[in-house]
Amino acid sequence: MTGEIFLLPGQIVSALTIGAVLAYPLARLLLWRYERAVERVMRTAAPAARGVGQSAAPAITPPAPSAVSRGPWPPLLSNLRGLPWRAAAVQAIVAVLVAVWFAGLQIEAWGIGFSPWRVAVLAIPYLWPGVLAVLLVAGISRRQRIAVLALGTTGYLLLGGVASTVPPVQALGEAVQLWVVVNLLPTLYLMAFLTPRVRSVGPLVLLVCLLAVAGAVALQGTLAVREDWLQGVGGVLIAMGLGPYGAIAAILLVGAGIALVVGIWLLGALARAYAAHRVGDQGMMLAALWLVFVLSYSVSLIFSGLVYFGLGLLAFPAYLLLVRPLRALLLPRQGENGPALLLLRVFARKGAAPALFRALSRHWRHVGPIRMIAGYDLATEAIEPDELMAFLRGRLDDSFVTGPAVVDRRLGETTARRDADGRFRAEEFFCFDDTWRYTLQRLVAASDLALMDLRGFGPGNRGCVFELAALAEAGAMSRTLLLHDASTDMAALRDESAKLGVPVAALPLLALKGDESHDLPALLAALARTAGSPR
């Protein structure tokens, strides 16, 4: 048993490391292929129209005002600003409880005397995942995130210096060393999967890769401690002509294959739970963060006994159980009647739309859903688990709108509903080349307000011109906000506005400066005003 305990930390670290090495390039490759697949299907005609020619968007009857204006809503601006911070407070409270739990386990495992001061001092390094969770959830700019990190680092070093009995310089060095030992490895590990490039699928791909690698390591480790089993299995494989190295490879592949089947089943189960709103994308991302840190923290307790390792792992299910009542306590009861925001933009492979979508999602999805025509520019930002599974099964076309009846049915089915993490969805409508116009017209009529990002707009963006015309024809300009900056061809915008009979002075424009700390507050305030304007 002592030998097994000695080997277990190395096996866990090996599984984490190999899983990360495999998962990151796999996630990048998966997203690249998904983006190309979306773009390819977007440029084709709907199956019923192929070979017949492009069909025109059918005319629609403007809906009654009550269909697009379901307010009044709760104070929108205060909720846009405050609800992300309330969600972050949930993570902060859980972080304190988890940190105290691990500090108490350390005191018990090491046999040192208990005191509230010791618990507080030992808990400080374990607050780090809470800091990361707050940075991911709170609606703050990059400059504010840097300020939060700087403030947290300063507070940690000061507390480390106060708690230590050695000279200040040595105390600071020991505090840094303790943080490195406890938090550096899981932090570096997660940075690869919580970056904007792969965040949408990173946790899911990581889960499958971890299970596959863990299966290989577990089977090999089990046989390593049971020599009679190893000799029996190895003897059979060698007798089959595989040789010693081939036998080892076969054992690893069998273990990985069995675990991979479990991982794919679990991925499908998560996709079904997501489709039923039992989990949300932010909830899964945070769960992945806490799972990695809890596993890493628990490994350090193994040498005190497997009991302490198991007690450490209990922190993860405790996190899952705690966040729901804390959300109910700290987040006001909002109901499901949230304003639906239609997001339109200039399609560009390297445009500003992804950053806008991420910033907007952190705020708006606490109060209402975001709707948009899916495109290659945001394909990897808003991919959902059920869409990922459809892509992996080769059924991506099934997600596309093939005609008016489909989009009307989709809108009827997508009544605003919160996920388990308290946020609304980003609702993508995948369209063929001959179905996006009708879909756009229907979304304009069915959404409460529209945000159109005209950065990079020019006379060649005929899709945006059609969208502007649809907004004007539906009488939706009063509930629309148009974003622009130096990259917007204002002369072309004035020309198109004149053709639509809308004076430039009447266009609801908001200029962006490219500074998130300025642009985001201005955008939220403008959206709140637009939502509250007369219909």
Notes on the structure:
This protein is mainly alpha-helical. It folds into two domains: 43-74 and 339-531, Rossmann fold; 80-191 and 280-333, no CATH class. The chain is built from 20 helices and seven strands. It has helices at residues 2-42, 65-68, 76-110, 116-123, 128-137, 142-163, 168-191, 202-225, 227-239, 243-275, 281-299, 306-313, 315-330, 353-364, 385-392, 404-413, 436-446, 462-473, 490-499, 516-531, and strands at 341-345, 370-373, 400-401, 426-431, 449-453, 480-484, 509-511. Helix 19 (490-499) links the parallel strand 6 and strand 7. The longest helix has 41 residues, at 2-42. 38% of the residues are buried.
Write the layout of secondary structure elements.
Blueprint: H1 2-42, H2 65-68, H3 76-110, H4 116-123, H5 128-137, H6 142-163, H7 168-191, H8 202-225, H9 227-239, H10 243-275, H11 281-299, H12 306-313, H13 315-330, E1 341-345, H14 353-364, E2 370-373, H15 385-392, E3 400-401, H16 404-413, E4 426-431, H17 436-446, E5 449-453, H18 462-473, E6 480-484, H19 490-499, E7 509-511, H20 516-531
Helix pairs in contact: 1-8, 3-4, 3-5, 3-13, 3-20, 5-11, 6-7, 7-11, 8-10, 9-10, 10-15, 11-12, 11-13, 16-17, 17-18
